[in-house]
Write a structure and sequence with these properties.
The protein is α/β, with parallel strands linked by helices. 42% of the residues lie in helices and 23% in strands. It has 13 helices and 18 strands. The structure holds flavin-adenine dinucleotide. This is Squalene monooxygenase.
């Protein structure tokens, strides 16, 4: 059994692990980055980075990782509702505000390059099996892992271990209080040479079925993600699922997308991922910090995951800068800075997380009263920049203010009631009053539990 010492051990060389290794290595920390598989990942996740995520990369001098990977700039969203397009630009006056969509694996390979080229970073191929603890204090002092080549068990020690092992984290339950919740899945295909209604925009198709997302990820490929309700892994062979994918989905797609979708369905293997929520919760064990999807997850509808990860890493590197914490063995100082991190990250993660959860609830609307909210939401955004600029700023994560989310969400709810009343006519006053009460209660039940739990965490 071998053993070595570092300042920081990071495991998981995915979105967050690589960024963290690159930045901390540049700060002069000796970093060990452990990954079980360094080959290019082929995944259906993390393919659109919001403008706020690009800003975080810039702050870390890592913005080049989204270049040279055949990515596609995105300037906002097109929401297709009952055949009509609602255009929601990030910033119509400033084209420098943009996101970028790409093949996830290509981004990861650039991030890994950044980590490997950073000074003071050692990379190894191994699977972490255990977090080592000091028997007396319970503090995490390092990891035990199996080396891929030799199959040997190796132990590495460091005053700080950063766990960035992703959504299917196996250590989370030992350290993090919150539990993960899955309420839907995304089924994924690649559309070949599809012509989107608004090039360089993410597309959201709203209809009687759950929402469908599309964004072009390279000059030929467009990702389509079809939401499937339910917490269970979809069974592709059931008659119901076949009818859903072969008939219901194409029926709501724009004409130009139908054939590429049917071709993809015929020729590709469907893949899926759970759409999960894991609220933030402080982890109080000294010597370890959980970040990324191992720590905090929101619905992928709004493409906010990588943005939160990059913002978290940027903030962490600021708080642990050697000018503030010269020695990571100063455990009290590190604990104080991690506490600060937990509280400061709320300014962006509350808005991104709550928006993702509440928007999905509105967009998959399956009940009569949710549909009132859904229609009101689309019509509210359609009014113009005075209504959509702040919500799209929250989604882009360029606006970090949960109060704005609260205010805008209830503005949408009350607008929905106006739209509903107008469509029924005041002859239906008793129905309108009843629907208004139910809809406001429903709106509150959609947003408040997330807002409150994220604030209190
Ligand atoms: C369907 C779907 C679509 C999404 N789309 C978007 C999007 O468009 N935009 C966006 O911003 N976010 C999106 N997300 C979320 C985003 O993908 C995640 O937030 C992000 O990938 C999390 O990064 P991470 O570093 O925590 O984990 P990952 O990037 O998953 O990295 C984890 C790494 O840890 C390694 N690992 C795991 N266990 C071990 C171990 N024991 N030992 C060693 N190594 C280990 C893995 O091999 C992997 O390399 C999406 C999520 C889903 C489910």
């Amino acid at each position: 059994m071998g053993s070595s010492n570092f300042d920081v051990i990071i495991f998981g060389a995915g979105v967050g692990g690589c960024a963290a290794a690159a930045v901390l290595g540049r700060q002069g920390r000796s970093v060990l980055l452990i990954e079980r598989d360094w080959s290019m990942p082929d995944r259906i996740v993390g393919e659109l980075l919001q403008p706020g995520g690009i800003d975080a990369l810039k702050k870390m001098n890592l913005e080049w990782v989204i270049d040279g990977i055949d990515g596609i700039d995105t300037y906002g969203y097109a929401v297709v509702y009952n055949g009509k397009i609602v255009h929601l630009p990030y910033n119509s006056a400033d084209s420098s505000v943009h996101g970028r969509a790409f093949h996830h694996g290509r981004l990861i390979m650039n991030l890994r390059k950044a980590a490997k080229e950073s000074p003071n970073v050692t990379c190894v191929t191994a699977t972490v099996n255990e977090l080592l603890r000091d028997e007396e204090t319970g503090r995490v002092v390092g990891v035990s892992c199996t080396d891929k080549e030799s199959n040997e068990t190796l132990q590495y020690h460091a005053p700080l271990t950063i766990v960035l092992e992703g959504l299917f984290s196996k250590f989370r339950s030992q350290f993090v209080k919150s539990t993960i919740k899955v309420d839907s899945h995304f089924a994924a295909l690649i559309l070949k040479d599809a012509k989107l209604l608004m090039p360089n925009h993410g597309h959201v198709i709203l209809s009687d079925i759950a929402p469908i997302l599309m964004y072009q990820i390279d000059p030929q490929d467009t990702r389509i993600l079809v939401a499937i309700k339910g917490s269970k892994q979809p069974s592709w062979n059931s008659d119901e699922m076949k009818e859903y994918l072969n008939e219901k989905v194409p029926a709501v797609l724009p004409e130009a997308i139908k054939q590429p979708y049917l071709d993809a369905l015929r020729t590709q293997k469907l893949r899926s991922m759970p759409s999960s929520f894991l609220g933030s919760s402080p982890n109080n064990t000294p010597g370890v910090v959980f970040l990324g999807d191992a720590f905090n997850v929101r619905h992928p509808l709004t493409g906010g995951g990588m943005t939160v990860v990059f913002k978290d890493i940027d903030l962490l590197s600021e708080l642990l800068d050697p000018s503030i914490v010269p020695d990571l063995r100063d455990f009290d100082k590190v604990a104080a800075q991690l506490k600060k991190h937990h509280s400061l990250r709320k300014r962006y993660c509350i808005a991104v997380n709550t928006l993702a959860q509440s928007l999905y609830a509105l967009f998959e609307a399956s009940t009569y009263h949710m549909k009132i909210l859904q229609r009101g939401c689309v019509e509210y955004l359609q009014v113009g920049p005075q209504n959509y600029s702040e919500p799209i700023g929250l989604l882009a994560a360029t606006l970090e203010d949960p109060n704005v989310l609260f205010y805008r969400f209830f503005a949408v709810a009350f607008y929905s009631l106006r739209v509903h009343a107008r469509s029924l006519g005041w002859a239906y006053a008793p129905v309108i009053i009843y629907d208004s009460i139910v809809t406001i209660i429903l709106a509150s039940s959609v947003i408040l539990p997330y807002l409150i739990s994220e604030f209190m965490a």
